[in-house]
């Protein structure tokens, strides 16, 4: 069960229409290291992880949905007032032909979202290392996105998301240490 | 969709987002540091602060939560905008 709050986690403002930037930002909506993949990966892994880290996976997975909503808001605001011809010129002609103004989870190159992004190996330490890597990769993607726009309002929201990836990676590293201790106590000598 | 949004809505929303940031951050920290009594005390302090802010926000601007967690609001205001991506 989830409860929705009618607000964004952090404000999203854009200072201009920029469909080219929307095309790049969609990477964090439906890409391999995007927010949808992160949310579903953690919320899928948590069922079989040791109790001690389930709370963390639940809470980070839930926060990723708040980030997904922020990315969706960016894409929506950057494209809502542009014409189909402008979308085509921005490289979103293929998107518009199939989805119109709807959002759709694919990456910046147009590849649709895929279940293999979930990464579930059935080994808790392996899964958590995967999660640390995912956060670091998302942090790098946010940095590249920040460098590709001169819209300071958009940059502000992207910087917030970049910093959240840093915190999540730190917490996952701590979770690895917790699991190592747990594994040690399980061992019978 | 295009509706007038008061300056006070943005101010109140900002206060709510600020206190929520502290609570999200403390939640993740407590997930891996459950024995940190100081962090837990801070969490409970900000939790009380949030309750007051939510009550004030909902009174001025309408419901924040669904499924009976918050007020339905006159004319079921829950289902009316503005939605988060419209402001």
From TrEMBL, chain A:
Amino acids binding Ca(2+): 59
Cofactor(s) this protein cannot do without: Mn(2+); Ca(2+)
UniProt cross-references to CDD domains, sorted A to Z: Mn_catalase
Gene Ontology molecular function, alphabetical: metal ion binding
Domain of life the protein comes from: Bacteria
Keyword annotations: Calcium, Capsid protein, Manganese, Metal-binding, Virion
Binding site for Mn(2+): 35, 64, 67, 135, 168
InterPro entries the UniProt entry points to: Ferritin-like (IPR012347), Ferritin-like_SF (IPR009078), Mn_catalase (IPR007760), Mn_catalase_dom (IPR039377)
UniProt xrefs under Pfam families: Mn_catalase
Family recorded in the similarity comment: Belongs to the manganese catalase family.
Protein name: Spore coat protein CotJC
Organism (species): Ferroacidibacillus organovorans
TrEMBL record, chain B:
Residue span, Protein CotJB domain: 12-86
UniProt KW keywords: Capsid protein, Virion
Name of the protein: Spore coat protein CotJB
């Amino acid at each position: 069960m989830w409860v929705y709050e009618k607000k964004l986690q952090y404000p999203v403002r854009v200072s201009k229409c920029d469909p080219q930037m929307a095309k790049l930002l969609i990477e964090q909506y439906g890409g391999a290291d995007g927010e949808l993949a992160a949310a579903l990966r953690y919320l899928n892994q948590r069922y079989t992880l040791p109790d001690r880290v389930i709370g963390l996976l639940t809470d980070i997975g839930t926060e990723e949905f708040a980030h997904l909503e922020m990315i969706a808001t960016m894409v929506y605001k950057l494209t809502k007032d542009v014409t189909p011809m402008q979308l085509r010129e921005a490289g979103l002609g293929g998107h518009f032909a199939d989805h119109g103004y709807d959002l759709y989870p694919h990456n910046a190159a147009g590849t649709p979202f895929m279940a293999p992004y979930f990464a579930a190996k059935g080994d808790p330490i392996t899964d958590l290392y995967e999660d640390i890597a995912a956060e670091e990769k998302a942090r790098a993607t946010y940095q590249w996105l920040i460098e590709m726009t001169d819209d300071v309002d958009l940059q502000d929201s992207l910087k917030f998301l970049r910093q959240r990836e840093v915190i999540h990676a730190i917490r996952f590293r701590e979770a690895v240490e917790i699991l190592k201790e747990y594994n040690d106590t399980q061992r019978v000598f | 969709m295009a509706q007038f949004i008061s300056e006070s809505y943005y101010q109140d929303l900002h206060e709510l987002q600020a206190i929520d940031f502290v609570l999200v951050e403390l939640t993740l920290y407590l997930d891996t540091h459950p024995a940190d009594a100081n962090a837990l005390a801070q969490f409970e302090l900000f939790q009380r602060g949030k309750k007051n802010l939510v009550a004030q926000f909902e009174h001025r601007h309408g419901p924040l939560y669904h499924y009976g967690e918050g007020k339905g609001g006159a004319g079921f205001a829950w289902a009316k905008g503005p939605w988060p991506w419209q402001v």
